[in-house]
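Q: Structure tokens for this one, please.
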Amino acid sequence: MILSEALNQFVGVQEGRPQQDVAEVHRFVRWCGPTRAVGDLTPLEVSDYGEQVITAGGDAQGRLLPVKEFLAFLKRQGHLQVNLSTHIKIPRSKVRSGTDLRPKTEPIALTTAGYQAMVEELEALKVQRLGVAEDIRRAAADKDVRENAPLEASRERQGQIMSRIAELEERLRWTVVVDGSRGEGKPVHVGSEVVLRQVNSGQEVTYLLVDPAEADPTNGRVSVASPVGKAIVGRRVGEEVEVVAPRGATRYQLVQVRG
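A: Here is the predicted structure, written as tokens:
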């Protein structure tokens, strides 16, 4: 079993659990690698994750308790031979007046369109969640739950939906919408539409620089984390940049910046 499947199973039996708890388990799975086999987890990396959370500051206890429970669940289900939950050390909580206890997370810059798309997906998933809950109710009415494939399928789907809802709510919590008010003469930033001219050939290309969550290279939306994005972010019109990609390096001149 891989971690993403284990996460769906965990969420499926955790009805009523706070969305923030689910988001923290999702964060842990993403850190380890969703396609990693559960059995490949090691005490050292689990311990390292806990130390990183504590070092980052904020509500470490609130972030680590759900992860500890997730690991204990994996052991109870027989997916782990060793109880890795013991390697998550929960610090004692400290009540500090006037202090923001939220984990320190980098803001996520999104275009207005990207933000709206995320909100619409979240709302659609919440509607789907109600439908799946009804499917589970009907399937559970079958007294023989041992061979109840519809019930298992609905629970798995519910886990997937809950996991995605938690992820979207976490991302939206830290999202900053880029209004595109900055224009010519300003450095390239997320939300900028740029025109690049290849130095050797003179060929021009137009890109919209976006957060990785919005990236769609086939439609000219390049991630700020891509080779092109890394090369042009913070640059101004007239500057030359070198884009290093697997096929080689290419030099471009920044011709225009809009937004």
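A few notes: Residues 10 and 70 are 7 Å apart (CA to CA). The chain has three domains: 1-96, 105-178, 193-258.
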